[in-house]
Write a structure and sequence with these properties.
Blueprint: H1 3-23, H2 30-37, E1 55-65, E2 70-81, E3 87-93, E4 119-125, E5 128-129, E6 139-142, E7 145-154, E8 158-169, E9 179-182, E10 185-188, E11 194-195, E12 198-199, E13 203-204, E14 220-229, E15 233-236, E16 239-240, H3 243-246, H4 249-260, E17 265-268, H5 270-273, E18 284-294, E19 299-302, E20 306-315, E21 320-328, H6 338-351, E22 362-367, E23 371-374, E24 377-380, H7 385-397, H8 399-404, H9 413-431, H10 435-446
Parallel strand pairs: 1-14, 21-22, 22-24
Antiparallel strand pairs: 1-2, 2-8, 3-7, 3-11, 4-5, 4-8, 6-7, 9-10, 10-19, 12-13, 14-18, 15-19, 16-18, 17-20, 20-21, 23-24
Helix pairs in contact: 6-7, 6-9, 7-9, 9-10
């Protein structure tokens, strides 16, 4: 069957069921009913006539010291209140506080990863420093949230400027989705104060990040400068703006060749590492990345990782290309094929399932810990070749769900993970071997079948716990 037709049928069934629910007065949550009444949402899934989204622009200067793992940041946020509501407070996610001593979590972590959490040095709102001195109580902290009380409310259809100065020590033992990979390789995610989503369903999405349930963020623009010592290459969400400032000329040439090449280019190979001439030899280099209309930003760095890349035309009618690269430890044997595998998979996703041209200008698969997705980035462990294709396909497919679609993972993981699981199943089946992924899917589900954990997949994610 044509997969585009299958996708259309599935979406049509879902919309029909929603219409059936309305016509038969089946239960619709009160917060969703209000959105329907206010005409910000509609039962057919299209935005209502009064639909709106808030958003932010982030300009960040980040400094990371690999020797101490100290991460310091200064960020300026322009926050756009496109809602019809007057906001008297602003909620801010401090995701790194997941590793703070005494915090509530869904599972145990390595004690080496526990720390003091994020130290907020200064916050300003509309140019004025927020403070708790003299009884002002303008900032309060609750787990992984900071709540800012505004003396001057943010009116509808206006914008505000906030700044944050902060620091914390990156987790040591590998962490959850972020942290140390080896003594000179790191993956840094969920690392900055991030304005929470204010939407027409729940108002402020003030969920606590406890590890199991994932994320929900506004679409934002990011302009990020990352300063690290020489010999470290940095790979991040977004497009690299200044390759000539941070890479020596030989590697700039290879990088630019890879951007337009249909063949895999070894930008950094194992013979290059020993020369320690890959980056410009300033004491420190500042890597500049820019990304438009994405929901989050992450980066990885190392002083000994290899780098393969190529370009791919994902939209034949416009000629638009995507840069696809793999960054990895030379001992990760499966990763020597990852750049090609990722390329094949993105080509399949763009033309077959879901059959929409890959929505971002690049995708980097970084050799990290576990398997986790970020806009334009994937953090994957090294795994046996038989598992690599499914793992890469799964995490890359998240580019569509949730990142392109803007899914609220904190409530609707079944949409995000469900679509990703379906796409990676079909991708691996079509390009490789169906058994590669079929066995792992069935084996995992067998552990839950018939237990009280085997509940309808549409249950709010916050009320679900993994059975394994």
């Amino acid at each position: 069957m044509n997969y585009k037709i299958l996708l259309y049928i599935l979406l049509s069934i879902a919309c029909s069921e929603m219409s059936f629910a309305q016509s038969n007065d089946l239960f619709i949550p009160r917060n969703v009913q209000k959105a329907l009444t206010d005409k910000t949402r509609s039962l057919d899934g299209k935005p209502g006539s009064n639909y709106w989204q808030n958003r932010s622009d982030y300009v960040m200067d980040i400094a990371f010291d690999p020797a101490t793992r100290l991460l310091k940041g200064k960020e300026k946020i322009t926050y756009f209140n496109n809602s019809p509501d007057t906001l008297r407070d602003i909620y801010v996610h401090l995701y790194p506080n997941f590793f703070k001593k005494g915090i509530a979590r869904d599972f145990s972590i390595n004690l080496k990863d526990e720390g003091d959490g994020v130290e907020i040095e200064k916050i300003t709102y509309q140019g004025k420093v927020l403070s708790n001195e003299s009884g002002k109580h303008q900032i309060s902290y609750n787990g992984t949230l900071a709540i800012l009380k505004l003396e001057s409310p943010l009116l509808p259809k206006t914008k505000a400027e906030l700044t944050f100065d902060w620091n914390y020590v990156l987790c040591k033992a590998g962490g959850v989705r972020t942290g140390t990979i080896d003594s000179t390789s790191f993956f840094v995610a969920y690392f900055f104060p991030h304005i929470a989503v204010y939407d027409d369903i729940d108002g402020w999405n003030d969920f606590q990040y406890t590890g199991g349930v994932e994320f929900y963020n506004d679409f934002s623009n990011f302009d990020v400068s990352i300063t690290v010592p020489k010999n470290y290459t940095v790979h991040a969400s977004g497009e690299l703006l200044n390759p000539s400032d941070v890479l020596s000329q030989k590697y700039v040439k290879r990088y630019k060749e890879a951007l337009i090449s249909d063949k895999i280019i070894n930008i950094i190979d194992s013979n290059d590492i020993a020369g320690k001439d890959i980056t410009t030899q300033n004491d420190k280099n500042t890597w500049k990345y820019k990304a438009v209309n994405i929901t989050d930003f992450a980066f990885g760095l190392s002083d000994h990782y290899l780098w393969d890349g190529s370009g791919l035309v994902v939209n034949k009618s416009t000629g638009r290309r995507v840069f696809i690269d793999a960054v990895y430890n030379k001992n990760s044997k499966d990763y020597y094929q990852v750049a090609k595998t990722a390329r094949d998979e993105i080509n399949y996703m763009s033309n077959v399932l879901p059959g929409y041209p890959f929505p971002f200008p690049k995708e980097t698969v970084f050799n990290g810990v576990g398997g986790m997705e970020y806009p334009m980035m994937v953090n994957d462990s090294s795994v046996p070749d038989s598992d690599m294709v499914g793992l890469a396909a799964h995490e890359i497919s998240h580019s569509y769900f949730p990142f392109f679609m803007g899914i609220n993972e904190s409530k609707h993981a079944w949409m995000d993970e469900g679509w990703a699981a379906y796409i990676d199943y079909m991708t691996a089946s079509a390009l490789y071997n169906i058994q590669l992924i079929k066995n792992s899917r069935v084996a995992q589900y067998k552990k839950a079948i018939g237990t009280d954990a085997d509940v309808p997949i549409i249950v709010d994610s916050r009320y679900l716990k993994s059975p394994v």
